[in-house]
């Protein structure tokens, strides 16, 4: 039995093999039969240096038989056909034309023919002019070096492809680089023209640069890329150092200039930042004495210049009108400004707090009886001018007294100061209680019209608590007619306004002359206890006056902003010039 | 006696002066300072740039034509075939500078009329855009400029003693030759004309480069 099965196996094995062979023989991919060769295809021709060129083709089907290819060409000028002179040099399926066979500016008509035992097949012809098919080899010896220094850079150098003659001008090559950073994976193309070197500035430290170059003739094809050159940039390259140095130098330069400018303008800068506190501008004023607190000495120093002028003509002294506020109305209360708008209390303010010395800010105040239609003080004039006061039209109460407290700025020890500032600043917080004294003489304040003086007559309206004036001609407000004018004769030593009433005939002149703005201005209103509204020089009663906001708080201030305030030689305000605009 | 001769002598001198004035633009060899005219190398560079532009235009026009017209069997006999031109590097290098300059000038002169004729015929073509028409006009103008430039170069070389024959000698010979081939030029088709001119403009460019690298080889050689 075993032998029988082995036989069967052998037979099947043989049959299988034969079938397989048959299948193999029949299953040839080329075709079932041999035949003439397939048509070859000319790939193209290329010249690397414009002196030789190579044509390549692709063979068609071989037809099952060994085939041979032949390349035939003819030039444009003749019909004679030549065969390829060299099939080997350029490799398989190629034809190499060396210098002898190459002519530029001549058109070649090239054809490839494939032959085998059974037939021929010729390719399509192509026309080739060597001037158009130049494709050089790639550049050679590409090197990358790192040039150190303040500005490190990568220097790339290469050489022209061999066999290309650029020296005679026969071929002109242009180069192009491809620079790639490995970490970044970005590549850049840089055209380098005809030069054979290139610089890559600001290399990134720690990066690896891959550089390759290719070239192109004037009218031709780009070559292949050269072999890449690698360059690892070390990490220690100091970058942007110079920039920081430059920045530091620039900044220090600017700072130097600023400092120099500051030094130059030191005084003005200091003045700008810390405006100086104006000091007193009183002649003979000594701040040191004040600091010591010896007021008497100060005043004596201030006085010692023969001022205020003593009154010579006592006969000229008629009276002075002392107007004080009525105490009966408000004996206990502070003589605050009443509801009536025109009654104002001005308290002489020792501006001791301002430290400027005797603040002889007596305000000239006319305050008549309460039910009277009080008038504001129309005018208190400085020396020489008529004192225009208005008294109430009624008979004044016995206690209605108008206290004329002449105002004086502390600029001067006299009570006659800027007439404009007759209205005195009511120092805030000053006890109006001082007003209670008709003749207020707080310490350190010069009462302009101190009743103590016996050299002159004062008009005082029955004020109790007088300081013992001597005889006084009774000039009660009742005696005063409305808008009766009083002329300030002068100011005596104790800062009293020496007044005399003006004759009526004078008054008329005054109205015409003075009120036109020569010397007088009517006080139309008093505002806020420290503003005198003076009327313009006109007979019209109207609030056409400009408010003389002489808030002479810091009386030492000259208030240079006021153009009308002009100080005379001895510091007195020149009324004439002052009131000129009126 | 001399006073009598003074007038005619001055008269003669004037004529001589004219000759000098015409040709007296100072020519500076490269390297001389204080000279405001162009050096020979600069002249060459300019002329080569011109020729490169001309060749570029001719290539563009040729490819434009190929798009519009079926490439017919081109008769590759150009009307400038009678001009013997070196067709290889060694052949070109063997030629003397004078001959090379002469060849260039001949070529340029031979193409003057056909190019203007071509431009006129281009204007009548409806298939072409004005862009191509502009190229043809520019090409024609630039060839004229190029010719003047090459003449200037030849003159300079002659003044410098590099070539013996003057430009006028070269040109005058070729004036006859160009008239002979005039009929041939008129029979060319536009395509043929462009094909031939593309080749000839390339020749001109290469010859100029060879001449430049031989005479003034500083940059680009």
Search tags:
heterodimer, A: five-stranded antiparallel beta sheet, four-stranded antiparallel beta sheet, 23 strands, disordered C terminus, B: 221 residues, mainly alpha
What is the CA-based Rg of chain A, rounded? 62 Å
Described by the principal axes of the CA atoms, the overall outline of chain A is rod-shaped
The major pleated sheet of chain B works out as: none
Give me the Rg of chain B, rounded: 21 Å
As a percent range, the share of helical residues of chain B equals over 70%
- Please state roughly what percent of the residues of chain B sit in beta strands, choosing from under 5%, 5-15%, 15-25%, 25-35%, 35-45% or over 45%: under 5%
H and E order of chain B: HHHHHHHH
Mean pLDDT of chain B: 78
Alpha-carbon distance between the two ends of chain B: 62 Å
Strand content of chain A is 15-25%
SSE order of chain A, one letter for each helix or strand: HEEEEEEEEEEEEEEEHHHHEEEEEHEEEH
Low-confidence stretches of chain A: 328-481, 510-517, 538-582
Average pLDDT of chain A, rounded to a whole number, is 67
Main sheet record of chain A: 5 strands, antiparallel
Largest interface: A-B, 23 and 23 residues
Distance between the termini of chain A: 161 Å
């Amino acid at each position: 039995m075993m032998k029988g099965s082995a036989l069967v196996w052998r037979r099947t094995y043989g049959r299988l093999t034969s079938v397989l062979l048959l299948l193999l023989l029949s299953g040839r991919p080329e075709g079932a039969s041999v035949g003439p060769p397939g048509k070859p295809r000319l790939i193209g021709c290329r010249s690397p240096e414009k002196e030789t060129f190579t044509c390549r083709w692709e063979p068609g089907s071989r037809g099952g038989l060994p085939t041979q290819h032949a390349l035939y060409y003819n030039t444009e000028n003749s019909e004679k056909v030549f065969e390829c002179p060299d099939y080997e040099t350029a490799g398989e399926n190629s034809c190499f034309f060396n210098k002898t066979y190459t002519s530029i500016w001549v058109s070649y008509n090239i054809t490839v023919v494939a032959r085998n035992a059974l037939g021929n097949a010729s390719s399509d012809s192509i026309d080739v002019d060597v001037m158009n098919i130049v494709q050089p080899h790639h550049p050679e010896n590409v090197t990358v070096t790192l040039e150190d220094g303040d500005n490190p850079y990568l220097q790339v150098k290469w050489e022209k492809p061999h066999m290309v003659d650029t020296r005679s001008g026969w071929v002109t090559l242009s180069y192009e680089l491809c620079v790639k950073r490995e970490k970044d994976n970005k590549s850049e193309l840089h055209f380098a023209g005809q030069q054979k070197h290139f610089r890559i500035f600001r290399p990134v430290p720690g990066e690896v640069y891959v550089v390759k170059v290719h070239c192109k003739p004037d009218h031709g094809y780009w070559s292949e890329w050269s072999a890449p050159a690698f360059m690892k940039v070390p990490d220690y390259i100091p970058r942007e150092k110079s920039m920081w140095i430059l920045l530091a130098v620039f900044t220090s330069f600017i700072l130097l200039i600023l400092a120099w400018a500051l030094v130059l303008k030191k005084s003005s800068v200091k003045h700008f930042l810390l405006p100086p506190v104006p000091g007193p501008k009183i002649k003979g004023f000594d701040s040191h004495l004040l600091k010591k607190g010896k007021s008497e000495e100060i005043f004596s120093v201030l006085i010692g210049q023969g001022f205020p002028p003593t009154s010579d003509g006592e006969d000229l002294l008629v009276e002075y009108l002392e107007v004080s506020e009525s105490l009966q109305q408000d004996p206990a209360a502070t003589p605050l400004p009443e509801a009536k708008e025109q009654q104002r209390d001005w308290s002489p303010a020792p501006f001791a707090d301002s430290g400027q010395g005797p603040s002889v800010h007596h305000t000239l105040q006319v305050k008549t009886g309460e039910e009277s239609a009080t008038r504001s003080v129309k005018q208190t004039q400085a020396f020489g001018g008529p004192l225009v006061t208005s008294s109430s039209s009624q008979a004044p109460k016995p206690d209605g007294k108008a206290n004329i407290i002449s105002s004086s700025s502390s600029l001067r020890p006299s009570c006659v100061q800027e007439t404009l500032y007759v209205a005195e600043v009511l120092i805030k917080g000053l006890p109006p209680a001082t007003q209670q004294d008709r003749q207020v003489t707080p310490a350190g304040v010069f009462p302009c019209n101190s009743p103590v003086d016996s050299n002159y007559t004062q008009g005082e309206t029955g004020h109790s608590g007088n300081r013992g004036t001597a005889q006084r001609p009774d000039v009660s407000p009742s005696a005063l007619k409305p808008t009766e004018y009083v002329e300030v004769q002068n100011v005596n030593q104790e800062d009293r306004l020496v007044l005399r009433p003006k004759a009526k005939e004078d008054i008329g002149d005054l109205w015409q002359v003075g009120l036109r703005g020569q010397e007088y201005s009517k006080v139309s209103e008093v505002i806020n206890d420290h503003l005198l509204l003076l009327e313009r020089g006109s007979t019209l009663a109207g609030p056409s006056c400009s408010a003389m906001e002489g808030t002479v708080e810091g009386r030492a201030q000259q208030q240079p902003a006021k153009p009308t305030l002009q100080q005379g030689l001895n510091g007195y305000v020149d009324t004439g010039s002052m009131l000129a605009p009126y | 006696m001399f006073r009598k001769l003074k007038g005619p002598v001055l008269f003669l001198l004037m004529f001589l002066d004219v000759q000098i004035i015409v040709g007296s633009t100072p020519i500076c060899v490269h390297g001389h300072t204080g000279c405001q005219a162009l050096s020979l190398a600069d002249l060459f560079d300019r002329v080569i740039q011109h020729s490169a532009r001309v060749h570029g235009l001719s290539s563009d026009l040729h490819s434009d034509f190929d798009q519009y017209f079926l490439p017919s069997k081109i008769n590759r006999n150009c009307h400038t075939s009678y001009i013997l031109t070196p067709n290889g590097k060694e052949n070109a290098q063997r030629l003397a500078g004078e001959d090379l300059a002469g060849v260039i000038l001949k070529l340029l002169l031979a193409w003057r009329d056909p190019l203007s004729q071509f431009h006129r015929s281009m204007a009548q073509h409806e298939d072409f855009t004005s862009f191509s028409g502009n190229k043809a006009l520019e090409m024609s103008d630039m060839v004229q400029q190029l010719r003047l430039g090459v003449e200037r170069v030849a003159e300079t070389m002659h003044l410098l003693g590099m070539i013996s024959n003057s430009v006028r000698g070269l040109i005058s010979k070729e004036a006859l030759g160009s008239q002979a081939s005039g009929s041939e030029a008129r029979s060319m088709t536009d395509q043929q004309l462009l094909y031939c001119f593309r080749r000839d403009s390339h020749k001109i460019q290469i010859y100029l480069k060879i001449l430049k690298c031989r005479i003034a080889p500083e940059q680009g050689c």
